[in-house]
Amino acid sequence: MAYETVDVRKLTGGCGAEVLGVDLNALSNSQWAEVQRAYAEFGVIFFRDQRLTPEQHIAFARRWAPIDINRFFTPVEGHPEIAEVRKEPEQKTNIGGGWHTDHSYDKAPAMGSVLLARELPEEGGDTLFANMYRAYETLSEPIKKMLTGLSALHDSSKAHYYRVKANDRDEMKFPNAEHPVVRTHPVTGKQALFVNRGFTLRIPQLKKHESDALLEMLYRHLETPEFQCRFKWQKNSVAFWDNRSTQHHAMFDYFPHRRYGHRVTICGDKPFYRAA
Ligand code: SIN
After folding, report:
1. What SS3 state is found at 270?
2. Of 57, 86, 100, 103, which one is the catalytic site residue?
């Protein structure tokens, strides 16, 4: 079905679309309906030139569901709902610099995240997104059959242990959760692969070496370039991704420069698998 009130430009055959001609702070009812449709259709949608205040950024995210506050990122002063995605010139790592799904370690992982670029390096700092429906659909039938009924353990300590100061680690609870390896999207009803390098630890139904080998095979598969799009940020660009159907990877090719964004993450629900 064509879009009538917004201009939607698909990025690649993998995923992602730019949605042009909208002001996220002043969406008409029909634009809002079409933005919702584009989000479900493309997995990640991008907007340019959105001069949102922190309050407007939070208000846009709240239209979808309550805010899911990140436990590990520094919040923006006065706005605990907004996480800083900050890379200072001297830092040798960035946030999100590997394939992952935000908050997959929670019992009810985040539905999605809205990232607004505030400051960018002159070159580099793009973000890659990958389509987890395609990742699932393109597996061979015997592998799909094997994955049905398997779950995976996700643990925040896998990625965040080293981000937390040594003396805070003992007191800190690192959340973890077990989720189906294939999840059914609650809105589209489609199946998506739901394991990620960032936070998935193992498949408890398998022996460790079997779990390691299977997860490595799935990670390599889901990182297939044809499932991806790559977003080139500009100041005030917004990316809004669906964690239930995509993964992302923030490129780190801009050392020693600064990159700074504001991320608001939106609550999701407990993943489930329902046979098609
Ligand atoms: C993230 O994983 O939320 C960071 C994405 C980015 O900085 O592009």
Report:
1. coil
2. 100
pLDDT at 15 (0 to 100): 98
Per-residue model confidence as pLDDT tens digits over 213-239: 999 999 999 999 999 999 999 999 999
Question: Would you say the CB of residue 246 lies under 6 angstroms from ligand 1?
Answer: no
CA of 221 to the centre of ligand 1 (A): 21
Range of weakest confidence among 84-93, 165-174, 180-189, 247-256: 165-174
Looking at the CA of residue 251, tell me the nearest atom of ligand 1. Answer: 8
Is the pTM higher than 0.85? The answer reads yes
Closest CA to 151 of 177, 175, 176, 181: 181
Q: Which of 85, 88, 238 to mutate to test the pocket of ligand 1 (most atoms within 8 A of CB)?
A: 85
Q: Are strands 17-20 and 44-47 parallel, antiparallel or unpaired?
A: parallel
Q: Is 100 a catalytic residue?
A: yes
How close is the Cα of 24 to the center of ligand 1, in Å?
20
Q: Which residues, 6 or more positions from 53, have their beta carbon under 8 angstroms from its beta carbon?
A: none
